[in-house]
Specification:
The protein is mainly β. It has no helices and 29 strands. The strands form 7 sheets. Strands 5, 7, 10, 13, 15, 17, 18, 19, 21, 22, 24 and 27 form a 12-stranded mixed beta sheet that branches. Strand 21 (about 205-225) and strand 22 form a beta hairpin. It starts with a strand and ends with a strand.
């Protein structure tokens, strides 16, 4: 800074070169006072004078850019002149992905390459957000699963919803989901046909299918004015250690209801009309007898069908 002032004893102005070190927080109009003393020829005492000048300071703006996760930013942190235009770049390390910028990004512009244009009109603390990538591998003998069989690369912590259809028919054979095998984030085994989990590490899920066939044989009779039908249901399936139960679900016409179930394998009936068999499943066959109450005005053929499967009932889900 150069100050020029006129002394009382000289006609020529005095020029003084000054270097001013001011705090970074200094801004606006500031007054600088210069005190000087000098000796004048013929005078015994030195002469002292003061000069004042008003200076305007623009406050420097501080930029602090740091990575979150594993990656790099191409900028030097430090003080910048007000109004400086700066472009920030981020590069993810191997196995990571750059998600975007966080922090003081007001009035900033994000470009197509995810670089960031900022104006240093304020102090800015900005974070480059990097996320680790993990894989989810889905394997299935049939295509009736969601998402389809593939290896997916996703952000760590992404919640994935996975499901399989109730049944698949392939070359005349009906298959049902017996469960799944998991690694990584997932348990080693599960039975639900629908599951949801945040994938925190490399993970795999393999759907397990089991071939089944269901047959039924019915007879009808009336007891004390109540029309009922006894039906024998038989399911054949492929024995496997993972099967803990098989289930039947009679599909009844309007007005009909399930009364009871019995048999050598001690079946049970749930409140929502499912017949469960949990004993003696190593033979690959489950047989139950059920009794159905028909509407009192029923006449003619009795329409009946039954759904069936192994392990989890329809609608059961697994959530982590």
């Amino acid at each position: 800074t150069q100050l020029v002032f006129q002394t009382a004893l000289t006609s020529a102005p005095t020029v003084v070169q000054l270097r001013l070190d001011v705090p970074p927080s200094s801004s606006g109009l500031q007054t600088v006072v210069l005190h000087q003393a000098y000796q004048v020829t013929g005078m015994t005492s030195p002469v002292s004078e003061s000069a004042a000048a008003s200076l305007t300071f623009d406050q420097y703006k501080y930029l602090d850019v740091t990575p979150i996760g594993s990656g790099y930013v191409t900028i030097n942190n430090g003080w910048y002149d007000p109004g400086d235009a700066i472009r920030l770049y981020a590069e993810a390390a191997a196995g990571w992905r750059f998600r975007g910028w966080l922090g003081d990004t007001e009035n900033a512009i994000t470009n197509q390459d995810l670089s960031l244009n900022i104006i240093m009109d304020q102090h800015r603390t900005i974070q480059a957000d990097f996320v680790k990538l993990v894989t989810l591998t889905v394997t299935s003998a049939f295509s009736a699963v969601s998402p389809p069989e593939l290896t997916y690369v996703i952000d760590q912590g992404t919640r994935m919803d996975l499901s399989a259809l109730a049944t698949v028919t392939n070359q005349g054979v009906t298959y049902v989901v017996a469960g799944w095998q998991g690694t990584g984030t997932l348990p080693s085994f599960g039975t639900a046909r629908s599951l949801s989990a945040p994938i925190d590490q490399d993970t795999s899920l393999t759907w397990i299918w089991n071939p089944v066939s269901i047959t039924h044989q019915a007879s009808g009779y009336r007891i004390r004015g109540t029309l009922t039908a006894d039906i024998t249901l038989t399911m054949r399936f492929e024995p496997m250690p993972e099967i803990s139960q098989v289930w039947f679900h009679p599909v009844l016409p309007p007005g009909a209801s399930l009364l009871d179930a019995w048999g050598a394998q001690n079946p049970s009936v749930t409140s929502n009309g499912f017949v469960l068999v949990q004993q003696d499943l190593t033979t690959g066959e489950a047989e139950v007898q059920i009794s159905i109450k028909l509407p009192p005005d029923h006449h003619g053929p009795f329409p009946f069908s039954s759904e069936g499967g192994v392990n989890a009932l329809p609608g059961e889900t697994f959530t982590m």
